[in-house]
């Protein structure tokens, strides 16, 4: 019923969190939506490779989900985190609330969120999901895109609007880099991250579940977010050179004894010894660029436009907000891409750059701040 013959074709490149949500936004407007994703359908995949197992969904992100009727579905599978729980070196724990009483953020499963959004996009008859399509090249003049398919074949297809939601290493963005007056910067921070699982104890969460647990330790930091299966996903952030100093199981335990002693029994010494070496530490990149559009043909959203370091927990949330902002501008300018795209860049670039800066600032400051709070907490019981 939604399909209208006069509607333009919108190609969403990348079916990650932002691409899948965006497909819903465009489908709701009745566009002919074609989504192209390099990976196979994660709803059918045995192992879902991702960037983090769970993430913090905040108010910004929830508002965007609400616009496409997905808020309740996602929130019902999220775990509220009412405060941060700071772990001192001695193992003492002290909560620091997020804001006013009753405010919280949610720990959500990344893979489930992505799957639910794909299924939601697919319920629109005017949306088609194309997996195993890796964008290789596209033309800003014609909107013609070339995709690599498995087994070496290629396909081409044309769209009126190309929406680049293909993440921090965006192939869509490559075209932008070839153009004059496009600003671009990319910075890798010296830290890497590694995820470790804390299993349930006697069938229950090993720590209090309704908190984002944080172990601030000068240049290191570990955080843990709860999952529905009563595990916690712990993420250890530290400089790559520190990760590289640890090469044996004994060294892992020594390191944890020195910095995160209370986590050893919680994660389990044997698990730690093994899991630390399962995957190498992952890099984190901050990408800033402007503008976010080319003519009336292409626009970047999500990490493709602004990858941020995760210390502010706002990467996905900011990407979700991109979708709402674009949607509002579409209303304002009657879906006229030649007016909507420049306005989107004008409005969105400063806000996204501010989020990237805050995240980078947080990376430096958050640990100092939390250590300070910890110090205050234990020297002043009233805080
Ligand atoms: P992605 O999730 O990267 O998705 C891009 C998609 O495009 C992928 O599916 C990819 O396969 C596809 N693709 C790539 N290239 C092509 C191509 N050439 N052709 C077709 N498809 C392609 N954010 C939060 O808001 N809260 C958090 O708590 C949080 N925690 C984080 C923790 C860590 C450790 C990290 C690394 C990030 C965290 N983030 C968090 C940030 C969040 O993960 C990203 O902002 C979010 O994933 C961006 O979504 P996206 O859809 O723009 O990009």
Which labels suit this protein?
single chain; 383 residues; alpha/beta; FAD/NAD(P)-binding domain; 7-stranded mixed beta sheet; 19 strands; 36% helix; 28% strand; elongated; binds flavin-adenine dinucleotide
CATH superfamily caption of the largest domain: FAD/NAD(P)-binding domain
Bound molecules: flavin-adenine dinucleotide
CATH topology of the largest domain: FAD/NAD(P)-binding domain
Q: Which CATH class of the largest domain?
A: Alpha Beta
Question: In what range is the share of β-strand residues?
Answer: 25-35%
Q: Gyration radius, to the nearest Å?
A: 22 Å
Helix content: 25-40%
Structural class: alpha/beta
Spatial strand arrangement across the major sheet: 6-5-14-15-16-13-17
Number of strands: 19
CATH architecture of the largest domain: 3-Layer(bba) Sandwich
Measured between the Cα atoms of the first and last residue, the distance is 58 Å
List low-pLDDT spans: none
Integer tally of domains: 2
Query: What sort of overall outline do the alpha carbons produce when their principal axes are compared?
Result: elongated
Largest sheet at a glance?
7 strands, mixed
Please, what is the average pLDDT?
92
Total DSSP helices: 12
């Amino acid at each position: 019923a939604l399909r209208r013959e006069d509607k333009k074709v919108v190609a969403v490149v990348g079916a990650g969190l932002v691409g899948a949500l965006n497909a819903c936004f465009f489908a709701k407007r009745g566009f002919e939506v074609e989504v192209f994703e390099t990976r196979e359908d994660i709803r059918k995949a045995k192992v879902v490779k991702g960037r983090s197992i769970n993430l913090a969904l905040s108010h910004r992100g929830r508002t965007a989900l609400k616009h496409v009727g997905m808020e309740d579905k996602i929130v019902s599978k999220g775990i509220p985190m009412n405060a941060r729980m700071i772990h001192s070196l001695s193992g003492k724990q002290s909560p620091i609330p997020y804001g006013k009483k009753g405010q919280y953020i949610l720990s959500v499963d990344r893979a489930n969120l992505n799957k639910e959004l794909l299924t939601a996009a697919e319920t629109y008859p005017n949306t088609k999901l194309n997996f195993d399509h890796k964008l290789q090249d596209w033309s800003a003049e014609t909107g013609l895109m070339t995709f690599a398919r498995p087994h070496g074949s290629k396909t081409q297809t044309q769209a009126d609007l190309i929406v680049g939601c293909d993440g921090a290493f965006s192939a869509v963005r490559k075209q932008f880099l070839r153009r004059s007056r496009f600003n671009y910067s990319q910075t890798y921070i010296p830290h890497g991250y590694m995820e470790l699982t804390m299993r349930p104890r006697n069938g229950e969460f090993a720590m209090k579940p309704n908190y984002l647990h944080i172990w601030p330790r000068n240049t290191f930091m570990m955080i843990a977010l709860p999952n529905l299966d009563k595990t916690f996903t712990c993420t250890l952030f530290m400089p790559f050179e520190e990760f590289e100093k640890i090469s044996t199981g004994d060294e892992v335990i020594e390191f944890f004894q020195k910095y995160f002693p209370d986590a050893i029994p919680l994660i389990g010494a044997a698990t730690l010894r093994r899991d630390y070496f399962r995957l190498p530490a992952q890099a984190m990149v901050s990408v800033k660029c402007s503008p976010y559009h080319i003519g009336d043909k292409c626009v970047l959203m999500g990490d493709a436009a602004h990858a941020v370091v995760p210390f502010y927990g706002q990467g996905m949330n900011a990407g979700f907000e991109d979708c709402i902002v674009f949607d509002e501008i579409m209303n304002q300018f009657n879906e006229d891409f030649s007016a909507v795209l420049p306005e989107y860049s004008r409005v969105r670039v400063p806000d996204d750059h501010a989020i990237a800066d805050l995240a980078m600032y947080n990376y430096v400051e958050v640990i100092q701040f939390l250590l300070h709070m910890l110090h205050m907490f234990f020297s002043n019981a009233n805080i």
